[in-house]
Amino acid sequence: MRPRIPYRAAAVLLLVFAIGHTLGFRDSDPTWGIGPVLAAMQSTQFSIQGFTRTYWDFFVGAGFTVGVLYVFAAVLAWQMGGLPGEALALMRVTAWGFACCFAVVTAVSVTHLFLIPIIMSALITVCLSAAAWSSSRFAA
Domain limits at 113? Predict the structure, then answer.
């Protein structure tokens, strides 16, 4: 298999993951019973390094940061899918680092999140690992 296919598949999955995460991470279901927690997160203000913030501000900031990083990862995977094999062979550490990063994201998802991020991150890990493995055949 050529690395182009799994890199492009990872890019599409990453973009879908970024959109889903960005649109959904602030949603909650009233049946979860976390209304008082959310209200406290949104209303309790504190000063930090000259700024007045709430824990909700931190939560939203971290959530949008993750979404931006997923979009960047999608762009990176798409571009890596367009590189010639010789260039990918020179980027083995980057390719395997990218795959390992999402393996860790999968582990974090299994430990702390729920089914959708577990499945998405696992699929992305598989695609990136397949791409890194298939890129190694171009090594001199």
Answer: 4-25+59-138
First CA to last CA distance, the chain: 18
With respect to residue 86, please indicate whether it lies within any of the assigned structural domains: yes
Q: What is the pLDDT of residues 61-120, one digit of tens each?
A: 999 999 999 999 999 999 999 999 889 989 999 999 999 999 999 999 999 999 999 999
pTM, two decimals, is: 0.92
Residue 105 CA: distances (Å) to CA of 13, 49, 52, 57: 14, 30, 31, 23
DSSP H helices, the chain, are: 4-24, 35-43, 55-81, 85-90, 92-112, 115-135
